[in-house]
Write a structure and sequence with these properties.
This protein is of the alpha+beta class and 88 residues long. 34% of the residues lie in helices and 26% in strands. The model has no long low-confidence stretch (mean pLDDT 96).
């Protein structure tokens, strides 16, 4: 398992479109992808789980990946955060 803390740096937080992009990215990998915010765990392959985190701008999220392609998955998710989910 690998993990990293990421900060939501886009202006509007993780709303429906970033959540859909997270799910699309996470489902490309075989490993488990878990987001943790304020003690709440969410499966990153479920848009409802991601939306329930209510991640606002500046929110700190721990991302854990566990499985055969965990490093690649974590890098892909980190890239989404660093590029502000590609549109915000």
């Amino acid at each position: 398992m690998v993990s990293k803390e990421l900060t939501v740096i886009n202006d509007s937080g993780i709303h429906a479109r970033p959540a859909a992009l997270i799910v699309e990215t996470a489902t490309k990998f075989r490993c488990a992808v878990i987001f943790i915010k304020d003690g709440m765990r969410a499966n990153a392959k479920s848009i409802m789980n991601i939306m329930l985190l209510a991640a606002e701008p500046g929110a700190l999220i721990r991302v854990e990946t566990d499985g055969p392609d965990e490093g690649e998955a974590l890098a892909a998710i980190e890239n989404l955060f660093m590029t502000k989910f590609k549109y915000d």
